[in-house]
Design brief:
The chain is α+β, with helices and mostly antiparallel strands. It has six helices and four strands. It has three domains: about 90 residues, Conserved hypothetical protein from pyrococcus furiosus pfu- 392566-001, ParB domain (Alpha-Beta Complex); about 35 residues, no CATH class; about 35 residues, no CATH class. The protein has a four-stranded mixed β-sheet. A hairpin with a 4-residue loop joins strand 2 and strand 3. Helix 1 packs across helix 5. The protein is extended, with a radius of gyration of 22 Å.
């Protein structure tokens, strides 16, 4: 077998996890699909940052997360990558795949733009544009002209614990009528 070498950066902690990814199995049921642009962005990211997190499989090497990275790497003759084998059942493997494919945080548009500006200030406009385009977004056209403060403005907030959803709605409406800036938070 070939040496476990890679041209991509591998954190020291991941070196013991290096495996021949050609031996991993995809179940052909992964609903996550990537466009050619997204695949190019994944490859550029791997080239620039290396393996920031391993490919995940069950104990038998059936993919949980990283099927696109595996395919892209094999297409670029990169055959070794860190692989974390998890002792999960088939149903848990599928649930993990759903979680990792679909659950995404909701981004605050203002904080996203502030992050874009930080990235632009460090000279990475083309990479940022390529990343956003790969996920169907665009960099705001006037973003280069915006002023940016490295500090997030101080805010003072209060959380009110409610008995139930109806109580939450009543308190929200009352405070809204009093002119408070509000948002709903359900924990």
């Amino acid at each position: 077998m070939e040496n476990k070498t890679t041209n991509l950066k591998v954190p020291e902690a991941y070196i013991p996890l290096l495996e021949d990814i050609r031996l991993l199995t995809a179940d052909q049921n992964n609903p996550n699909r990537t466009t050619l642009k997204q695949q190019e962005q994944i490859w550029r990211s791997l080239q620039k940052y290396g393996w920031t997190y391993p490919i995940l499989t069950n104990k038998d090497g059936v993919l949980v997360d990283g099927e696109q990275r595996q395919s892209i790497c094999i297409g670029h003759s990169e055959f070794f990558a860190p692989v974390l084998r998890l002792p999960v059942s088939d149903v848990d493997r599928r649930m993990l795949r759903q979680i990792l494919n679909k659950l995404k945080g909701k981004h605050n548009a203002e904080l996203d733009e502030a992050e874009y500006i930080r990235i632009l200030q460090q000279g990475e406009k083309e990479d940022l544009k390529a990343l956003l385009e790969s996920v169907g977004e665009r960099l705001p056209e006037d973003i280069d002209d915006r002023e940016f403060s490295l500090t997030i403005p101080e805010t003072y907030e209060i959380i009110v614990e409610c008995k139930d959803e109806a109580n939450q709605k009543n308190i929200f409406e009352k405070l809204k009528m009093e002119g408070y800036k509000l948002r709903i938070l359900t924990l």
